[in-house]
Write a sequence for this structure.
């Protein structure tokens, strides 16, 4: 994997259902993986910063896991609600990146249907 | 407290016009980043400041793009002679230290006709 990739690009979820999606990234020179939630017309909101292999983070109904050796992270939404509708972005921070800039995936657009 | 703000939120420019996009970072944040998000893609890095010093401008797509942060707080991204391919959302982010998360503004949506 050379770039940060997210799949699927979009998904529709029925209210109350749980869902998950993937961020894949190159594992070399790994420093941290960030997850953001971006609602239309708002600022991207930081959800998690993950640094250690095996990390699991949770914020309300949203949780994330990290595997730095194989280069992937999963984000889970439990019991989806309409307010969870947003684009979820993952971003890689690498050790040797100047200024520790973030390299983003293309995002997963989630639409929760009432 | 106040987050990162950007202005204008929307900008329509005719091809060939110059535009200036403003970013007000969170007070006290040392680092400031600009990203460009084209339709259907993730944000891509443009440039990075530490205080007033522009330490990385490797992501600026051409010499028509220029960024400054003269007093180490407010930053301006200037695009000269805009082209249609410059149409995108321009995001600004600030960070307090070297190890903290980046906090984003709402972006400026630029449309070049």
């Amino acid at each position: 994997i050379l770039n940060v990739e997210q799949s699927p690009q979009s998904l529709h979820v029925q209210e109350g259902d749980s869902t998950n999606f993937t961020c894949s990234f190159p594992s070399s020179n790994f420093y941290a993986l960030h997850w953001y939630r971006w609602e239309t017309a708002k600022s991207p909101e930081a959800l998690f910063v993950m640094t250690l292999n095996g990390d699991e983070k949770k914020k309300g109904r949203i949780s994330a896991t990290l595997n730095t050796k194989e280069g992937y992270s999963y984000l889970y939404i439990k019991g989806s609600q309409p307010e969870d509708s947003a684009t979820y972005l993952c971003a890689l921070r690498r050790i040797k990146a100047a200024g520790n800039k973030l390299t983003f995936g293309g995002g997963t657009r989630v639409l929760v249907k009432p | 407290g106040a987050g990162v703000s950007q202005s204008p939120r929307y900008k329509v420019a005719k091809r060939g016009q110059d535009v200036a996009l403003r970013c007000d970072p969170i007070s006290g944040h040392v680092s400031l980043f600009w990203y460009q998000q084209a339709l259907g893609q993730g944000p891509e890095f443009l440039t990075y400041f530490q205080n007033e010093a522009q330490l990385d401008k490797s992501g600026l797509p051409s010499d028509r793009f220029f960024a400054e942060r003269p007093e180490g707080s407010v930053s301006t991204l200037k695009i000269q002679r805009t082209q249609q391919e410059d149409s995108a959302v321009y995001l600004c982010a600030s960070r307090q230290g070297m190890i903290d998360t980046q906090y984003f503004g709402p972006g400026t949506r630029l449309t070049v006709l």
Notes: Chain B touches chain A at residues 3-4, 31, 33, 35, 40-45, 48, 50, 55-56, 58-59, 91, 98, 101-107 (CB under 8 Å). Residues 1 and 48 of chain B are 23 Å apart (CA to CA). The mean pLDDT of chain B is 94.
